[in-house]
Amino acid sequence: MAAEKNGRDGGVQSLQRAFELLEHLADTGGEASLSELATLSGLPMPTIHRLIRTLVDLGYVRQNTNRRYALGARLIRLGENASMQFGSWARPLLAELVDEVGETANLAVLERDEVVYVAQVPSKHSMRMFTEVGRRLLPHGTGVGKAMLAHLPSEDVTALLTRTGMPSYTEHTFTDEDALLRELAKIAQQGYALDEAEQELGVRCVAVAVPGAPVPAAVSVSGPSGRLTMEAVERIAPVVQRIATSLGSTLSKDGVTV
């Protein structure tokens, strides 16, 4: 029985270490060498090599031509399905948000350097904003993206922007890194982000990061800027903050994971 127990414990430990290596790869931007993984994890090189080879064989890690290891394509399906399930679970709170503020509510997560919209509840107005669920955008040009970036270390934001660049969606999109970093500091202080026609002309968005989410996530309300005025923003922002906090609290309480 002792041998069986030790074997089972060893299997659990290997599983835990394998997932930790995947997270270390994600933290490095998706690619690292074995020596870098050894430094990050504190594990001996033979253990890392054994775990990585298993993950490569399963398709969760790939080895590039430069002999560095990267996250594998098999993770894409898992991440996308988990994100969509998270969106389905959160939809009742988004519906509550729409009932209170009267505008379209969205939920998005940060995945592979992109904002992915995973849920939406539309407003009842004849003129309303539709962001297709599953749509991917770069975070610097969206309210939800800026809300999430404002809660990341500045060096992580800089690394992300280096990888993605800062193309403009409209004439109002932030395309200068220093200006964006100043905006993110303001967002962190005031507790919500505004998208001032930065992703689509004529549209204003109020977005708040979800505290305690296992991956960066944000809730937003969007509508025509003529209806979603700055006076309306002052009324709506605290409601979006409350819904985002409720989402985060429920995640912590129920152990829901993305």
Give the SSE layout.
Elements: H1 2-27, E1 31-32, H2 34-41, H3 45-58, E2 61-63, E3 69-71, H4 74-101, E4 104-111, E5 114-121, E6 136-137, H5 143-149, H6 154-164, H7 177-190, E7 193-196, E8 203-209, E9 217-224, H8 230-254
Antiparallel strand pairs: 1-3, 2-3, 4-5, 4-9, 5-6, 7-8, 8-9
Helix pairs in contact: 1-3, 4-8
Number of separate strands: 9
| Low-pLDDT regions | 1-8
Mean pLDDT: 85
Number of helices: 8
What's the structural domain tally? 2
Largest sheet: 6 strands, antiparallel
What features would you highlight for this structure?
258 residues; alpha+beta; Beta-Lactamase; three-stranded antiparallel β-sheet; 9 strands; elongated
Task: Please describe what this structure looks like.
With 258 residues, this protein is α+β, with helices and mostly antiparallel strands. The protein has 2 domains: 71 residues, Arc Repressor Mutant, subunit A, CATH 1.10.10.10; 179 residues, 2-Layer Sandwich (Beta-Lactamase), CATH 3.30.450.40. The strands form 2 sheets. The protein has a 6-stranded antiparallel sheet, with helices on both faces. Strand 2 and strand 3 form a beta hairpin. The longest helix has 28 residues. GO terms for molecular function: DNA binding; DNA-binding transcription factor activity. Keywords: DNA-binding, Glycerol metabolism, Transcription, Transcription regulation. This is Glycerol operon regulatory protein. May be an activator protein for the gylABX operon.
